[in-house]
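Why do we care about 3D structure at all? Because function follows from shape, and shape follows, mostly, from sequence. That is the central idea of this module. The next example makes it concrete: a single protein chain, its amino acid sequence, and then its structure expressed as tokens.
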Amino acid sequence: MILGLWLDFPVWLIFTSLGGVFAGATGLLVLLTNSRRTRPILLRLGTGMVPAYFTAISVLLALLTGTVANDAWERQRQAGRVVQNERSNLLAAHDLSLATVSDMSEIRAALVTYANALILDEWPKMTDGLSSPVAGAALGRLMAVSADPKHEAAGRAAHALLLDAVMNLRTARGERLALSDAQGDQSKWLTLMVLAGLTLVAIGLVHLERPVAQATTLIMFSIAMVTTLGVVALHERPFDGPMARGSAPIERARAVMIEGRG
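And the structure:
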């Protein structure tokens, strides 16, 4: 729950909270490893430890960080393609309704209604990973109107293309809603933070006999992790968070449909 809320923070607060966590962990490690009470115990624990053994933890951290980063960027790319696909199919259906000789004003009205439902109702709900019943009903109405056999008078080919565009809208909406579902975020980030913490401990133990080098290495590692995790977090949720994709492409398509231009 806490990690889910953390991904919704503003940009400055995401980096500040990460910095606070790593600064606290680094300070605690330096304090424990240099305290008169705990240092002898840690020195005995670290006796005979091979530094190369601890690289296994950092390798696991690097692999998981790369996987999470790649997943975040891929979700962003998919979200961009899906939204542009919705925009293209809205305009395609609108253009087809204008190009035919039969009256398809009912379809154009249904397209505008669906676009309004997306912009005004569904987009705000996607920040919580939810869909809009209003948008679902509007899409159902659009499909029913488009499938009406009376529109075959415009020609079977044109009618088939119109139905394809509407079905593509349905598919794109499903993909967009799937991308907005953020239920799987927390396990990935929890694992990342655990591995980052273990890597900090490993660095602290390896440099027990060199306090200055220990502090320097811990600080450098913490800065690198705060920068990396912060940037990845900004792109983790394509329709939520500080860099969420807006409904601007759909709004532009709606403007075109309202003006009646192809």
